[in-house]
């Protein structure tokens, strides 16, 4: 048996868990680079019986799975992975194993991006590193309005922290109820009110056909010119072209982004250089505790499957 570990960007996969139960039964190959070309990806994965994917770094749609007749198992971090065609995997007899995870790291990064964007922390730090000093006037959050799109296991915690900062917290999502919003310490409002009123809009929705492109030109037009947008959920929830246009035209004051339509973000993408954008490379889940949970549970899932077939 051959096992491939994909997209180990930090070269830590074999350090974060004891892979010996897998190594006793299979040959393990670790890839630290990312392959986006479909043909190249198929060539890379053809020799493997098991593929371990980190979140959605390498999507596995039906057109890829159909070209991998040897593939018999996919291990994926987290309880679900929208970038894997699970129906196609089932038809092809490919078993899918999942893992536990932790929401805390994404909650923490959300607030890091809110604070970094509100206080221009990147620009001020670069000024100090370059020999300069103060360059901007930041926004104080106390008394401002935090608009939370989605009050699930992450959004609800983000909302409670907003209240601790002394912010008025409002919330909306397609399925949100007044009771659920109030349980998180948020005031339930309609969609238009949220975008029109919020000083900070933070996104915590699952990507679906209903949420894709949910934040677009109309929403940016409704927002205050001093407002900030933060997205640690999934890139396609925001219309990226509309966001770039809104930032260039000064329709909003800033954006803190951890997720993008295409990842890794293309080298010449305007979001890499636009003033007012704090961009991080999808690191909401990239922290010590969730990584250890991911890799520990992946080892267990792969080992159980290998034992069942050998």
Automatic annotation (TrEMBL):
<dbReference type="InterPro" id="IPR029753">
    <property type="entry name" value="D-isomer_DH_CS"/>
</dbReference>
<dbReference type="InterPro" id="IPR050857">
    <property type="entry name" value="D-2-hydroxyacid_DH"/>
</dbReference>
<dbReference type="Pfam" id="PF02826">
    <property type="entry name" value="2-Hacid_dh_C"/>
</dbReference>
<feature type="domain" description="D-isomer specific 2-hydroxyacid dehydrogenase NAD-binding">
    <location>
        <begin position="112"/>
        <end position="284"/>
    </location>
</feature>
<comment type="similarity">
    <text>Belongs to the D-isomer specific 2-hydroxyacid dehydrogenase family.</text>
</comment>
<dbReference type="InterPro" id="IPR029752">
    <property type="entry name" value="D-isomer_DH_CS1"/>
</dbReference>
<keyword id="KW-0560">Oxidoreductase</keyword>
<dbReference type="GO" id="GO:0051287">
    <property type="term" value="F:NAD binding"/>
</dbReference>
<protein>
    <submittedName>
        <fullName>2-hydroxyacid dehydrogenase</fullName>
    </submittedName>
</protein>
<dbReference type="GO" id="GO:0016616">
    <property type="term" value="F:oxidoreductase activity, acting on the CH-OH group of donors, NAD or NADP as acceptor"/>
</dbReference>
<keyword id="KW-0520">NAD</keyword>
<dbReference type="InterPro" id="IPR036291">
    <property type="entry name" value="NAD(P)-bd_dom_sf"/>
</dbReference>
<dbReference type="InterPro" id="IPR006140">
    <property type="entry name" value="D-isomer_DH_NAD-bd"/>
</dbReference>
């Amino acid at each position: 048996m051959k096992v491939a570990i994909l997209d180990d960007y930090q070269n830590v996969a074999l350090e974060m868990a004891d892979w010996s139960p897998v190594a006793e039964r299979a040959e393990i190959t670790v890839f630290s680079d990312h392959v986006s070309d479909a043909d190249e990806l198929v060539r890379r994965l053809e020799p493997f019986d098991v593929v371990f994917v980190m979140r959605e770094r390498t999507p596995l749609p039906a057109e890829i799975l159909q070209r991998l007749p040897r593939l018999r198992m996919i291990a994926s971090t987290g309880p679900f992975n929208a970038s894997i065609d699970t129906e196609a995997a089932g038809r092809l007899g490919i078993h899918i194993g999942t893992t536990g995870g932790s929401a805390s790291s994404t909650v923490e990064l959300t607030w890091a991006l809110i604070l970094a964007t509100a206080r221009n922390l990147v620009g001020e730090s670069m000024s100090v590193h370059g020999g300069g000093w103060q360059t901007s006037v930041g926004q104080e959050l106390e008394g401002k309005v935090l608009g939370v799109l989605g009050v699930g296991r992450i959004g609800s915690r983000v909302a409670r922290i907003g209240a601790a900062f002394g912010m008025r917290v409002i919330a909306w999502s397609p399925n949100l109820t007044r009771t659920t919003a109030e349980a998180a310490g948020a005031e339930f409002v309609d969609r238009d009110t949220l975008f029109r009123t919020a000083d900070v809009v933070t996104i915590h929705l699952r990507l679906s056909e209903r949420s894709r492109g949910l934040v677009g030109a109309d929403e940016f037009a409704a927002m205050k010119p001093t407002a900030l947008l933060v997205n640690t959920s999934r890139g396609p929830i925001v219309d990226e072209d509309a966001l770039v246009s809104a930032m260039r035209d000064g329709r909003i004051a800033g954006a803190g982004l951890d997720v993008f339509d295409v990842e890794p973000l293309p080298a010449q993408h305007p979001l890499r250089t636009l003033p007012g954008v704090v961009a991080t490379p999808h690191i909401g889940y990239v922290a010590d505790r969730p990584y250890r949970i991911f890799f520990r549970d992946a080892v267990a899932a792969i080992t159980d499957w290998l034992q069942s077939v050998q």
